[in-house]
Amino acid sequence: MIAFTAGAGCLSTATVQDSSSGPLHAHYQYQDSWSPEYGCYSHLTGYVYNAGNVSADNIRLNFNLVNTGTGTIRDSRSIFVGHIGAGDTTTYETILDGECSQDYRVDFAFETP
Fold this sequence. Notes:
The chain has about 110 residues and is mostly beta strands. The protein is about 5% helix and about 65% strand. The N and C termini lie far apart (about 50 Å).
């Protein structure tokens, strides 16, 4: 009961986002959660789709967990996807570390050479 009460401030519904950069399209969703192992965190899952006619190389996805009250970045993750062929899809998953008493949003950016 104590763990549930302590973690109740960081439980939320899933937030879904889409982003694109040229032929690359990213879809991701995240949900704030709590566990004894991680404390409060945002669990993020998604996929990248290459809608172009040529392959894309050295693709990196950058995620920032941003405090909505202060605008500061609490945690960041960079996911190296690498090569995505034309018409291919790659899935990913990561965890962003937060604090139970704060509200956050996830900011996303593609990094391509």
